[in-house]
């Protein structure tokens, strides 16, 4: 089974691209969705213990948690030391299920794939990319996004140009949905061919 890492900087269209893989019949494990599940589930208590006041009614208050961690690398590292192992456990369970199902390709959507060293865990890497002005426009349109938050997020991410250099495949999401869908179809076809 091909294990494909899907990544891209904020605002590049990773979620849309992940959905396109699903539409091509490829299962995708979404790390962001896994984090949302953790934040709403019983493990939210672990975050509440580490960051008092960040959990209300068994659910992590993302705004409060962001305020406690924004621009504070040591606090971000502490949060990641709780969340990342939980996400990795969920990813392993997903991959095991896909292997049992006999899947030929499985995609793991990992926002900070290069930054966390996760590229060593996958066979191929797909980077989702768009022009910087398109990225900025998408990100700044998000509710609650500020210039400061955007800069802080970008500072933690490997530059897009570097990600594209290291990628096995690139999906360009600033050329229209149909062009991105064609990129995804070409990737699925190339992997199916390589396997044969």
Automatic annotation (TrEMBL):
Chain sites annotated for binding ATP: 11-16
Transmembrane segments: none
Molecular function terms, GO-annotated: ATP binding; dephospho-CoA kinase activity
Entries under Gene3D superfamilies matching the protein: P-loop containing nucleotide triphosphate hydrolases
Annotated keywords: ATP-binding, Coenzyme A biosynthesis, Cytoplasm, Kinase, Nucleotide-binding, Transferase
GO cellular component: cytoplasm
Coiled coil: none
Catalysed transformations (reactions): 3'-dephospho-CoA + ATP = ADP + CoA + H(+)
Group of enzyme by EC: transferase
Locations listed in the record: Cytoplasm
EC numbers: 2.7.1.24
Keyword Nucleotide-binding among record annotations: yes
Nucleotide-binding is among the record's keywords: yes
GO terms, biological process: coenzyme A biosynthetic process
Pathway info: Cofactor biosynthesis; coenzyme A biosynthesis; CoA from (R)-pantothenate: step 5/5
Pfam families, sorted: CoaE (PF01121)
NCBIfam families in alphabetical order: dephospho-CoA kinase
Function: Catalyzes the phosphorylation of the 3'-hydroxyl group of dephosphocoenzyme A to form coenzyme A.
UniProt record similarity statement: Belongs to the CoaE family.
Name of the protein: Dephospho-CoA kinase
């Amino acid at each position: 089974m091909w294990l494909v890492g899907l990544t891209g900087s904020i605002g590049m269209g990773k979620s849309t691209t992940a959905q396109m893989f699903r539409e091509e019949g490829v299962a995708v494990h979404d790390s962001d969705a896994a984090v949302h599940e953790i934040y709403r589930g019983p493990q939210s208590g672990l975050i509440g213990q580490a960051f008092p006041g960040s959990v209300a009614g068994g659910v992590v208050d993302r705004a409060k948690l962001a305020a406690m961690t924004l621009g504070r690398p040591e606090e971000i590292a502490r949060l990641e030391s709780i969340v990342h192992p939980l996400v990795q456990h969920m990813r392993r369970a997903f991959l095991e299920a896909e292997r049992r199902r006999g899947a030929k390709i499985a995609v793991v959507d990992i926002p900070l794939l290069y930054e966390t060293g996760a590229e060593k865990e996958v066979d191929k890497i797909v980077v989702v990319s768009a022009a910087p002005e398109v990225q900025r426009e998408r990100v700044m349109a998000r509710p609650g996004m500020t210039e400061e938050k955007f800069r802080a997020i970008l500072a933690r991410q490997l530059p897009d140009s570097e990600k594209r250099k290291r990628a096995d495949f690139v999906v360009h999401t600033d050329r229209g949905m149909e062009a991105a869908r064609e990129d995804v179809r070409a990737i699925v076809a190339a992997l199916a061919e390589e396997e044969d």
